[in-house]
Amino acid sequence: MLTVKVRKEDPTDLFEQVATEIRRAIGAGEARPGERLPPAKDLAAILGVNTNTVLRALRLLRDEGLLEFRRGRGVSVVGVPERSQVISQARDLVHYARKQGFAIEELIEIIKNVD
Question: How far apart are CA 3 and CA 98, in angstroms?
Answer without folding.
Answer: 37
